[in-house]
Amino acid sequence: MSALAARIAKQRAAAGGLGSHQKPMKYLGQDFETLRQQCLDAGVLFKDPEFPACPSALGHKDLGPQSPQTQGIVWKRPPELCANPQFIVDGATRTDICQGSLGDCWLLAALASLTLNQELLHRVVPRGQDFQQNYAGIFHFQFWQYGEWVEVVVDDRLPSKDGELLFLHSETGNEFWGALLEKAYAKLNGSYEALTGGSTVEGFEDLTGGISEYYDLKKPPARLFQIIQKALRAGSLLACSIHVSSAAEAGAEVTTRHKLVKSHAYSVTGVIEVDFRGRPEKLIRLRNPWGEVEWTGAWSDDAPEWNDIDPRQKEELDRRAEDGEFWMSFLDFLGQFSRLEICNLSPDSLSSEELHKWNLVLFNGRWTRGSSAGGCANFPATYWTNPQFKIHLDEVDDSQEGCVSKPHCTVLLGLMQKNCRRRKSTGQGMLSIGYAVYKLESPTDTPLGKNFFLGRQPFARSSAHANLREVSSRLLLPPGEYLLVPSTFEPFQDGDFCLRVFSQKKAKALELGDGVAGNPHEPHPSEVDQEDSQFGSLLGTLAGKDSEIGANELRTILNEVFSKETDIKFCGFDIDTCRGMVSLMDSSGTGLLGLAELRTLWLKLRKYLEIYRETNDNHSGSIDTHEMRTALRNAGFMLSTQVQQTVALRYADSRLSIDFDDFVACVTRLESLFKLFRLLDKDQRGTVRLSLAEWLCCVLV
Question: How many domains are there within the chain?
Answer without folding.
Answer: 4
